[in-house]
Amino acid sequence: MPNPRFLKTAERWMNKEVPSEKTQPVTPVQQSPPLMNNASYSFLEGTGGQAILDEYDQRVSGDYQGVSALNVLSFADNVLKGSNPFAFVLLNKILTQKKMRIATPADLERALEKEAINLRGTYGDSGLVLRSDGDPNQYLAKDLINQVKQRGSLQFPLMVPLAGLDLRYDANSPYNLSFQLTDFAELIYAPQLNKINHGKKFNKGDEQGLPIFEDSGTRTLYSSESNGLCRLCRVRGLGLDAGDGYLAYSDGGGRVIVCAEGTSAKN
Amino acid sequence: MPKTKAKIQGKVKGLYDRIGSEFYLCRDDFEAGGEKYNSALLMGTLTELNRGNMLLFGEYGGGKTTSAEYLQSVFNGLPLDLVKRVAIRGNPQLTEEKMVGRPHYGKMHQGEEDVVWQHFVQIGPKIFDEFNRIPESNQAVVLNGVDRGEWNYLNDFISTGPQPFFATCNYADRGNNGLIPPILDRFDVAVESRFPGVANVLHIAQDYHNDKDKVLSDPKLTRKALSVLNSGKPQTEVQKELEAIVQEHEKGLMTKDFPVLSREDKERIEQEVRAIPFDKDAEQYFAFLVAEMNTSPKYGQKRSIDPATTENGLYLQASFVGSGSRREEKSIVRYAKSLAWLQNQDKVNLDHVTQVAPYVLWHRVRWTPETQNIFKDNDRNDPLDLHITKNLLGDGTNEMPGVKKRFGESQENYQRVIDLAGHGKMDEALREAKEYSADGRGHPIFQDAVKDLEGR
Questions:
Q1: Nearest residue on chain A to B370, alpha-carbon basis
Q2: What is the DSSP letter of B417?
């Protein structure tokens, strides 16, 4: 039997109108814990990986009406394959409930530094790069800019790690999906990702995962775009692509890197 | 607005202004409802209105004791010299016999047991100066007295009921001790007595021998009061005679154009303060705060013996060790109501609660070292713990969002659960509360609502 005091309080606080039936799936407001720098990194493999993909597929059809931009992940050779920013945001929602999360740009740099995982030959998304309210992806760029402005000043280019984003179904979006900043979203001013730095070399990233340029570097920044919204993606040669506007594209070379076993909350 | 209400409020504000402009010169550092105040003086005034307990922190000679003395004198019609005389000064040798009471030695020699109560205990409004100079073991002696106005010694006890109580504390040095958590919890609010600014200091420095205090002092009445306190008469008689002295002093102040609050005024204020309700936003924010302070999806509830964990998200519960307490929640209600009353408001609003709550919590909450590290290098005006508390009870930062921000984000969902429950749709209310709870990662208010709806 419900606590009568709760019911009395509810009677005092309730609105006169009976609430209408929910038409949209519930999106609980959550706060993700920050994770420490000592995270360990892995691909999504084995039965655990398969189970996460099953849950992912259920969410895609149940909560997001099976939109095509999310139908990009597959499980083959005992590993989860595919990568685009939409899929990774949804994957992250599932992973955080299991005390894991997708890797941020900073995580990926640390993983490479520690040689914790062999990423060569694969690619994977880790963030978005917001440069203006124009194309590519004008609709999503404008929407994100509005959200960012509500949090304070805005300075382009802005790098937003996917781990701090949520996803909502949006029939007006060209992808039928929109990004939503969570409380945990990091908004990182990233002048390194300006078009002027396209083709520059680097060996490692800074604390935020942004490249530290060196003439003698072996990795390359691809940053040929100066407008709109692009994906931030680690590419097969371990370079960084910050100029790709095809947000829904995914292929079998994509890999999700998770901070999983061995990670600990920042406490 | 009833005329009488406005009149008493005007009187109280007049006293606040007079102390601030003539006696305890200070700068404003607190804003609520568009009005500015000095936090130490405002919280002191609210402490007088609702007969609470207040801790004053600050540097040596920073005006902690002075402000408490003026407040106790002005709001209780006590001669300032009497207030100073009956205050206790903390030191490591202070025993129960020096603080509370001692055996009546004369009667003891005749085989009788009787207690001579110390002045500090007999007088209603109290000041304990340099409170953290008494060792932790002796702090327990004053627990009950601070909490309920009840003092025990041998087999006797004395009760003055709830009375305004001020304790001053210097910041940590070699000569003082930490305050034990149960004692800290018994203080409704804590404030810092701050540097008042150069212009005020230049003025204060010219006040050679506190000449300004003469208007509030009355050596003759003080001697009379002390003889009453030393008389050994029963407590009811002592209180009656003290009340007569207070009335005489109040008359004297009136002739000096210094009207103070009468006993009737104070009784009416207490009734009016008590009757002010919270508006819905204020009460729901309060509910969110209580939920974040007391629940833990991992350990069932917050406990001081469990570590703070961020596993379920960066809610307030993850930022400090310990838990909320029923005293602390009562303090928020009483002080928010008092502030609303002082500002002539018919209801306590969100601003009242969010402005008052940090002063209720900052001395009680033990922020984790990680939380302190995040804020320690911030530019700030407040002591670090108060700075953190204000941030985390307000909107917070990008890195650590605050309760108010989360309240704004989840209030709509919570209202849905409330509406469903209020309209008798229990199953739907429970289902939605569970969904918003998100296996412990949603706001703690939903975990708590699930328990209430399930009758657990």
A1: A267
A2: H
- Whole-angstrom distance, CA of residue B324 vs CA of residue B354: 16
Query: d(Cα B187, Cα B178) in Å, to the nearest integer?
Result: 14
- Identify the three-state secondary structure at position A129: strand
Q: Is the pLDDT of residue A266 over 50?
A: no
Mean pLDDT in chain B?
A: 90
Which domain range does residue B253 map to? Answer: 3-268
Report the pLDDT value the prediction gives residue A212, as an integer from 0 to 100: 92
Judged by CB atoms closer than 8 Å, whether chains meet at B435 and A266 is answered as no
* pLDDT band for position A264 (cuts 50, 70, 90): very low
Asked if B433 and B303 sit in the same domain, the reply is yes
Give CA–CA dist B60/B65, Å, rounded. 10
What residues in B contact A154, CB-CB < 8 Å? Answer: none
> What's the structural domain count of chain B?
2
Domain match, B8 and B52 both: yes
Does this model's pTM top 0.90? My answer is no
Provide φ and ψ at B381, rounded to 5°. Answer: -110, -20
CA A214-A217-A220 angle, 5° bins: 105
User: Are both B240 and B379 inside the same structural domain?
Assistant: no
Whether residues B253 and B170 fall in one domain: yes
Chain A residues whose beta carbon lies within 8 Å of the beta carbon of residue B451:
3
Q: Judge if ipTM > 0.90.
A: no
Domains of chain A, by residue range, sit at: 38-259
Q: Is B344 left (phi over 0), alpha (psi -120 to 50) or beta?
A: left
Residue where one domain finishes, among candidates B268, B286, B310: B268
Say yes or no to pLDDT of B65 above 90: yes
Residues B252 and B358 in one domain: no
- Give the DSSP per-residue string, B77-115: T--HHHHHHHPEEP-TT--HHHHTEEE-HHHHHTT---E
CATH number at residue B184: 3.40.50.300
Task: Please answer whether residues A73 and A65 qualify as being in contact, where contact means their C-beta atoms are separated by less than 8 angstroms.
Answer: no
d(Cα B412, Cα B253) in Å, to the nearest integer?
54
Asked if B441 lies within 8 A of A31 by C-beta distance, the reply is yes
The answer to whether residues B95 and B187 belong to one domain is yes
Indicate whether B104 and B167 sit together in one domain. yes
User: Which pLDDT band, with edges at 50, 70 and 90, does B6 fall under?
Assistant: low
The closest CB to that of B313, out of A3, A30, A185, belongs to A30
Identify whether residues B184 and B92 lie together within a single domain. yes
Beta strands in chain A (DSSP E): 41-43, 74-76, 79-81, 101-102, 124-130, 158-161, 165-169, 177-181, 188-189, 201-205, 211-213, 219-222, 229-234, 240-244, 257-259
8 Å CB contact between A136 and A227: yes
